[in-house]
Amino acid sequence: MTDASNVSGKSGPSGLETARYVSPRVVAVYGVLTALTAAVTMTVAIPFPPTRGFFNLGDSIVFFSAFVFGWRAGAICGGIGSAAADVLLGYVFFSPITLISKGTEGLVAGLASKALKSRPLALAFGVVAGGACMVTGYFLGEWVLFGLGPALAEVPVNIVQVTVGGTVASVISYPVSNLLKRTSHGTAQL
Amino acid sequence: MTGFVDLYTEGNTFLHQMDPRVKILAVIFLSALALIIGNLYYLLVLLAAILLLLAFGRATLSKTFFALKLVLRVMVLIVILWPFFNPTGSPVLFHYGIIKITEPGIIHGITVAVRIACLASVWYILMFTTTQRDLVRALVKMGLRFDFGLTLSIALRFLPTFGAMVESIEDAQRARGMEFDKGSLLKRSRNYVAVLVPTIVSALRTADMLSLALQSRAYGARKDRTYLRDLRMRPTDYAALALFALTIALPAFAKYVLQVHI
User: How far apart, in Å, are the Cα atoms of B207 and each of A2, A19, A103, B43, B162?
Assistant: First the structure.
């Protein structure tokens, strides 16, 4: 797994200067993961009877990107994808908070899941560390924007949502990455 | 797909014709204005001005309502909860144990709610009158790297596709007897594993194809990119930019230099 600073083409054959862009594979995978995060955030809503609210499973894709494609994908796709969902749902003023909260969630989850040897422990550590960042980020952001009361009211909701998303992501990330190794032409090895 | 994926409304008003870069800056200026104003009445005037601009942009009522629906819930929450957490000021209306409600607390709560309404609705001026393609183009013109802009366009292009894919896979699993709305929260979210795995796998296969397509079209072959449609500022765009800059500069000057209370 090489990183996103991988550039395509150094010097052209005919003396033309080639652009030092991120490789096409990274552009494609990051674009698709970003779209997937936004799409799952916007479509998959699990009704939650006690509060008559909805949970979205967007966090599961954020954690999935971080676990399978590394912290950079987690940060970029999680942050931008979730912020894009906010923008498209009409929550534009809220999207910077989402960008930072979910971005750090993906970043920290990706880093933490590499810190431990045993796989189940590493995933659990990633979910807890990333989830803590997300809940704290939203709390601080909402405190500034909405005041202390509404910010406190959101904390338990966010904790349940991040737990559900993290559980789903830990369940799917291992089989999916195995499946990708077997079937695709190396997307999993980005 | 639940809701509108693209808030853009077709039209030919002056807001549609304005350069997207000017619109982005104008919206940022107006948001900053909403943040520095502390007086409820001035904020209401600002909200009215924003709604007037939205009306000029031919925003349809149904889309405006759809977009504001989520924000209204937050506003109600703020108006109700703010007085409990910020019981400051002198006319105490209600006092029982640790619960204390004051008149300035209530007014401040309403002010914050109206400010949130301003911050939310000002962005609709941009979102309702600018295509997603123009938005990305403006961001690239404003200094975003081309490859990042391309990634963003790919994400926006595939968003509705994946949304539809999630829904059709949900239907396919339902046809096989999966019950998504039964059982405990954990059981329900576990059911969604059966939706997310096929979605992710087929999305990543799409990414494989996409990277081949990018390579075959000489992505990144030369440094000096040319654009089919270039953004160009017109004199009216400069005039609009100056106008919006004044709307933030004058109140900011009054508040921080002249120390006028606004």
Answer: 17, 22, 21, 46, 12
Return d(Cα B88, Cα B164) in angstroms, integer.
50
| pTM reported for the whole predicted model | 0.82
pLDDT band at A53 (very low <50, low <70, confident <90, very high): low
- Within 8 A by CB and 6+ apart from A95, the residues are A83, A84, A86, A87
Identify which of B77, B119, B206 has the shortest CB distance to residue A32: B206
pLDDT beyond 60 at A19: yes
Provide the shortest C-alpha distance from residue A187 to chain B (in Å): 6
Quick one: average pLDDT of B63-89?
78
Distance CA(A95)–CA(A80), nearest Å, equals 9
CB contacts < 8 Å between A and B, how many?
245
Per-residue pLDDT, averaged over B105-126, amounts to 87
Task: Give the one of A16, A45, A93 whose C-beta lies nearest to B119's C-beta.
Answer: A93
Record: contact B207-A89, CB cut-off 8 A: no
ipTM, interface predicted TM-score of the complex: 0.81
